[in-house]
Design goal:
Helix content of chain A: 25-40%
Oligomer: heterodimer
CATH architecture of chain A: 3-Layer(aba) Sandwich
CATH class of chain A: Alpha Beta
CATH superfamily of chain A: P-loop containing nucleotide triphosphate hydrolases
Radius of gyration of chain A: 20 Å
Helix content of chain B: 25-40%
Strand content of chain A: 15-25%
């Protein structure tokens, strides 16, 4: 069966007693089966919220509108029991904050095998074999020793790789990796990259990589989504976007890399509001129309979709 | 000029079965005024221990640290306090370095109170000047750490370190938790402060591209030793040591020459 994930008209806002804060606005994306899509953008751009909304893991204060189609069903309206079968088995998450995501009173090994024995009713020995293999790939030379330890005994980088293994234990069709290389040094980052790249190329149906490591996204992903304040500013093939960025925000992001001379994006102009285009207060090309309405999504000749009046 | 000679530190863990870990082994370097030394290496190689020794948070087993000929490790408490003021440290996690229950203004003022610098009015004036220096809004003084962003928090940390008029800043992965655009802002700020105030930096990082951009000299660290030191440009363009080459290669994320184990083939049902 076709295992694309398609998001239609997604709006997410957080509601509290006094106000409604929109976090993700009008997102329409197709994640084709077998593709690796990178979600890039600054912190607070809504990358993680977009990923979590697919898994329905947002807190109760979040209001989610729209549809998320997967295998002919809308994930947002699926009953809780059905959703439990999808979560962790068909669509798995590699969470951010690894140390907080692991149970401190259970050994690493038990947490890793647990998801296999629950979902697949497989024998424990099989699960342990799979666990040791995965851990070895992720750079642990003695998997037995790691399996017997607790999360607080390991460093942040080790825990990061443990949750990566946790997400991959069940051979999921889709993996949503939230900052999988945060806090890792160059050698470990490359190891995690290689594992993700091999899964993306072989067994998993597809992957979403939420990251602000642009070099990782470039090497790993076929498609890229550039988010800013909850809007998808640019989407398309990774290579095209990074070689010839169309949106002023993407350009600014790339120019702030050390390789390109570290020119930061200008600060927001306090006189301008972001009620129209979200990037208007910081944009060097802003025109009058930008302050008034959200630019429509425009399809360029090379197939990518840009949300900017420069191309509308 | 900061001169560090032959510092070593060994940690002992365990009570019954004693194990020793040599975190730093016989490290020497000197750092002229207004220059930056970058220390790169993998996690667990002892980079942070070097930073802690420099700021006297950990005392070394042997070796000496001198700033302009004055010994920083020995001496009475008062002299010690006055001397260590000249070396300030900036940590990796800016949010957790600020007291969550105190306003940013209070946290900024506290070091000056401890060191008895200026009177009440003078301190307030200095706070305003410091915020200007790091390009922050004066309104921030009354906000709490959870209300400001990571980039702002890191600037507050820089302002706090600068409040004591240090000569040298020790930066322990100051940008690893920040976005690329905020990282660019902070690194550019550090560069311009170095020019205007004549500061020296010891910049600890595992991001070689940032180190290459900011540092005059670079030291590559492995298992507690400096395996290669030299001008940044020379080390990055023609690395001599095997480990330096490995480090540079892994930054590129290329698939050639991978050494790690390969991922197991599909074993589904």
């Amino acid at each position: 069966m076709n295992a694309d994930i398609e998001i239609q008209g997604l709006n997410v806002s957080f509601v509290n007693r006094c106000c409604v804060t929109p976090v993700v606005t009008d997102v329409n994306i197709l994640f084709p089966e077998g593709s690796i899509t990178g979600l890039i953008g600054e912190s607070g751009s809504g990358k993680s919220v977009l990923g979590m909304s697919i898994l329905r893991l947002l807190p109760a204060t979040a209001r989610v509108e729209g549809r998320c189609m997967y295998k002919g069903r809308d994930l947002f309206s699926l009953p809780e029991a059905e959703m439990q079968k999808v979560l962790g088995k068909e669509i798995a998450l590699i969470p951010q904050n690894p140390t907080e995501s692991l149970n401190p009173v259970r050994t690493i090994g038990r947490q890793l095998t647990e998801c296999v024995t629950i979902h697949e009713k497989r024998r424990k020995a099989d699960a342990q074999k799979r666990r040791d293999q995965l851990l070895r790939c992720l750079g642990f030379h003695r998997p037995e020793q790691v399996s017997n330890s607790y999360s607080f005994e390991l460093s942040g980088g080790m825990n990061q790789r443990i949750v990566t293994a946790l997400g991959l234990m069940n051979h999921p069709r889709w993996v949503i990796a939230d900052e999988p290389t945060k806090g890792l040094d160059a050698v470990l980052r490359r190891q995690v990259y290689q594992v993700l790249k091999e899964i993306g190329g072989s067994e998993a149906g597809g992957m979403m990589v939420i990251t602000h490591d642009i070099l990782l996204a470039e090497a790993l992903c076929d498609r890229l989504l550039v988010l800013y304040k909850g809007c998808v500013m640019e989407q398309g093939k990774g290579e095209t976007i990074l070689r010839h960025p169309a949106h002023p925000y993407t350009r600014g992001l790339l120019e702030s890399l050390p390789e390109n001379g570290m020119h930061p994006i200008p600060r927001a102009d306090e006189k301008k509001t972001d009620s129209g285009c979200r990037f208007y207060p910081r944009c060097p090309h802003g025109s009058k129309a930008c302050g008034q309405m959200l630019p429509p999504e425009t399809v360029l000749e090379d197939g990518r979709i840009v949300r900017c009046f420069l191309y509308a | 000029m900061l001169e560090v000679e032959g510092i070593s530190k060994t940690f002992v863990k365990g009570i019954i079965r004693r194990e020793t870990v040599a975190a730093v082994k016989d490290i020497s370097f000197c750092l002229p005024d207004g220059k930056t030394l970058g220390i790169v290496g993998n996690s667990g190689c002892g980079k942070s221990t070097v930073a802690r020794i420099l700021t006297s948070l950990v005392s070394p087993d042997s070796g000496s640290i001198r700033l302009d000929g004055e010994d920083l490790l020995w001496g009475g408490r008062k002299i010690f306090r006055a001397r260590t003021r000249k070396l300030q440290m900036i940590f990796q996690h800016p949010e957790s370095s600020l007291d969550p229950a105190k306003t940013v203004g209070y946290s900024l003022e506290e070091p000056m109170k401890i060191h008895r610098m200026f009177d009440e009015k003078g301190r307030k004036e200095r706070l305003a000047r410091l915020l200007e220096l790091v390009d922050l809004n004066q309104r921030l003084l009354d906000s709490f750490p959870h209300q400001i962003s990571g980039g702002e928090a890191q600037r507050v940390m820089i302002a706090r370190a600068l409040s004591l008029e240090p000569r040298i800043l020790i930066l322990d992965e100051p940008t690893s938790m920040l976005d690329v655009s905020v990282q660019a802002q902070v690194v550019n700020l550090l560069k311009s402060l170095q020019k205007s105030l004549g500061l020296s930096y010891v910049f600890i990082s595992h991001d070689i591209s940032v180190v290459g951009w900011l540092c005059h000299k670079i030291a590559v660290m492995q298992d507690g030793c400096f395996v290669e030191t030299g001008e940044t440009r020379k080390v990055l363009s023609s690395p001599r040591h095997k480990f330096t080459r490995e480090l540079l290669e892994s930054c590129r994320l290329s698939q050639d020459g991978c050494t790690g184990g390969s991922y197991p083939a599909n074993q589904r049902g």
